[in-house]
Amino acid sequence: MQTHLFLREATLPHDQLEYEIDAAFGGGDEWLPPGDQKFRENKLLTGRVLQVSAQGVLVDIGCKSEGIIALREWYDDQSGSIIPPCPGDEVPLVLKTLQDESGAPVLSYRQARSQARWDEFLASHAVGDIVSGTVTRQVRGGLLVNVGVTVFLPASEVDVHRPPSLAAYLNKTAECKILEIDAARLQAVVSRRQWLLEQRQRTKMQLLAELQPGQIRPGVVKNITGYGAFVDLGGTDGLLHITDMSWERVNDPHEVVHVGQQLDVYIVAVDHHQGKVALGLKQKLPSPWLNAEQKYPAGSEQKGEVTSVMNCNDPTRS
């Protein structure tokens, strides 16, 4: 018999072929892999835990092969120990590679948790928001802060003035303002310096609204110049001018105050528009000119000390 005639006789009719296939595989198309199922690398998916052993966690993601994930990926930072899942649990995973050399998918539970945290962070935060977290690590150029996700705090943004050492901030809570978010790279840059400056400005405006001429306020001498001293009032600085330090003549402000000195100052004037405050010390004492008429009556003779000599023929003087 010729070959083509043999093949014709051996080939089943189409309807009979379908019947044989249904009988062999139970009917329907379930024996075929679903054509619309797609696995994309570096994307989130859900897997079902099949087995947990010392070798790792065996999970099924609906692929032709199961994946094994190292137990260390279930390390819990809060408890400081590995908390493995149980068989039957559904866990979030990231498909790093569809097939390794053995044909099994390469999966990551730790990366999936990080991805999920970033998705939540990106959904609820934007540039300009304030976040709070713990400084966990010092790296080149700055610090890492855990605010639910790990963000970067540059050294130049740690404080108002760049600190000589960053180690003092480790394991401490930091309030920061978000400067930049890179959603594609899952990165964010924050600034503690900006948060501090805004807090100071807010405190300053609140304090300026409370200050009124005639009040007595506590302060600390912050800086001394040739014309006076700047006093920190607990949120804003005020100028204690040399002429307001004493009713007597003061040649050098250092004769009256020193840096770091705590003292009560008199609020002479407040410029709310420019944010300036004028302070005084002599105003807390009675003016020596209040009783001048009684102390130095007209026509009386008094003894005094010559302190300066002026040109009486100066045409600029009246």
Describe this structure in words.
- Among the domains are: 72 residues, Nucleic acid-binding proteins (OB fold (Dihydrolipoamide Acetyltransferase, E2P)), CATH 2.40.50; 72 residues, Nucleic acid-binding proteins (OB fold (Dihydrolipoamide Acetyltransferase, E2P), Beta Barrel), CATH 2.40.50; 74 residues, OB fold (Dihydrolipoamide Acetyltransferase, E2P) (Beta Barrel).
- The protein is built from five helices and 17 strands.
- The termini are far apart.
- The N terminus is likely disordered.
The count of β-strands is 17
Mean pLDDT, to the nearest integer, reads 84
Rg calc: 40 Å
Largest sheet: 5 strands, antiparallel
Gross morphology is: rod-shaped
* Total helical elements: 5
Which spans have pLDDT < 50 for at least 5 consecutive residues? 1-10, 28-37
The CATH topology of the domain at 211-284:
OB fold (Dihydrolipoamide Acetyltransferase, E2P)
Helix and strand composition category = alpha+beta
Q: What is the helical fraction, as a range of percent? A: 10-25%
The percentage of residues in β strands lies in 25-35%
What would CATH call the class of the domain at 211-284? Mainly Beta
CATH superfamily of the domain at 211-284, by name, is Nucleic acid-binding proteins
Q: Give the oligomeric state of the chains in this entry, treating copies of one chain as homo and distinct chains as hetero.
A: single chain
Q: Give the CATH architecture of the domain at 211-284.
A: Beta Barrel
- Physical arrangement of strands within the biggest beta sheet: 3-2-1-6-7
Report how far apart the termini are.
144 Å
Task: Give the ordered list of helices and strands.
Answer: HHEEEEEEEHEEEEEHEEEEEH
